[in-house]
């Protein structure tokens, strides 16, 4: 279930705190007037949402953020694990909040569209916003309601940014994994960036950008690392193969080129891994 939240609305944080469950329990069976934002610190749970005739069950675990929208029936369908811990926020709904239509893409800058469960790619940031809001909620701070409302907006923006990055990463993973399969099926060729960019109809800049997003290194660096790992395995599995043959099999100029690259990565010459 996707839900659309209005940004820059003055919201009241009704409750904010930590929960610890030494003994397993079910999540409460309820319909709330507020949104329930739940961040799992430890353990796992299973929660079902019913929205009219639709229902969906969500398994959740450590590092997940769960959004249970206001006026939507939700309940636990499996006991949490022992010693489960979470942080939660009960947040007042505003008139602009509503269930998102399938066609909505979240590009409206006045709103963010978020799913029920977010597997946080940067849990430190999400956890930081939760803990800061809990701290502000429990202290007598000047302009406390305004601070909490602003912090909640920042939390929504951070969640939305992580969701967008995850979608891009998923798209790029499909692209670079296709290239990875192609390279592994043709190990005897050492491809240039321009070779692969032409074959997969992208610019060299785009190719390197996508590899950096997914693998945190350029295409050339990734290819070299993959080839050297394959060389290491080949040398271990075949003591009879010469270094010159290995260089040919994996696309290196010659055995000297291979030996230099191998020693740079593994710290030893190829002959020492047989």
Characteristic terms for this protein:
elongated; 5-stranded antiparallel beta sheet; Jelly Rolls; 3-stranded antiparallel beta sheet; alpha+beta; single chain; Arc Repressor Mutant, subunit A; 274 residues; 2 domains
Sequence-ordered SSE layout with sheet pairings:
Layout: E1 2-6, E2 13-21, E3 34-42, E4 44-51, E5 54-61, E6 64-68, E7 73-78, E8 84-92, E9 98-99, E10 111-115, E11 117-119, H1 123-138, H2 144-184, H3 193-199, H4 204-215, H5 219-237, H6 243-249, H7 255-266
Antiparallel strand pairs: 1-9, 1-10, 2-8, 3-6, 3-8, 4-5, 4-7, 6-11
How would you describe the overall organization of this protein?
With 274 residues, the protein is of the alpha+beta class. It has two domains: 2-168, Jelly Rolls, CATH 2.60.120.10; 193-273, Arc Repressor Mutant, subunit A (Orthogonal Bundle), CATH 1.10.10. Helices cover 42% and strands 25% of the residues. It has seven helices and eleven strands. The strands form three sheets. It has a five-stranded antiparallel β-sheet, with helices on one face. A three-stranded antiparallel β-sheet has the order 9-1-10. Strand 4 (44-51) and strand 5 (54-61) form a beta hairpin. It is elongated. The termini are far apart. The model has no long low-confidence stretch (mean pLDDT 89).
């Amino acid at each position: 279930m996707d839900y659309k939240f209005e940004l820059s609305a003055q919201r009241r944080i009704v409750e904010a705190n930590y929960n610890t469950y030494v003994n397993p329990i079910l999540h409460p069976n309820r319909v709330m007037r507020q949104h329930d934002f739940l961040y799992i610190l430890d353990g796992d749970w299973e929660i079902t949402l019913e929205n009219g005739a639709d229902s969906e069950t969500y398994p959740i675990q450590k590092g997940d953020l769960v959004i249970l929208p206001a006026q939507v029936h939700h309940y636990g369908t499996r006991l949490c694990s022992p010693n489960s811990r979470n942080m939660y926020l009960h947040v007042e709904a505003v008139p602009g909040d509503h269930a998102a239509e399938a066609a909505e893409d979240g590009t409206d800058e006045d709103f963010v569209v978020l799913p029920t469960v977010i597997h946080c790619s940067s849990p430190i940031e999400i956890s930081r916003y939760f803990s800061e809001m809990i701290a502000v909620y429990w202290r007598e701070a000047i302009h406390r309601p305004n601070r909490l409302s602003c912090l909640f907006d920042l939390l929504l923006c951070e969640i939305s940014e992580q969701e967008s990055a995850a979608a891009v990463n998923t798209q790029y993973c499909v692209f670079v994994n296709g290239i990875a399969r192609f390279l592994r099926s043709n190990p005897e060729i050492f491809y240039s960036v321009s070779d692969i960019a032409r074959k997969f109809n992208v610019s060299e800049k785009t190719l390197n950008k996508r590899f950096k997003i997914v693998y945190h290194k350029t295409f050339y660096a990734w290819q070299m690392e993959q080839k050297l790992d394959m060389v290491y395995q080949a040398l271990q599995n075949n003591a009879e193969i010469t270094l010159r043959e290995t260089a040919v099999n994996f696309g290196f100029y010659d055995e000297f080129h291979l030996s230099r690259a191998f020693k740079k990565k593994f710290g030893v010459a190829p002959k020492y891994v047989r």
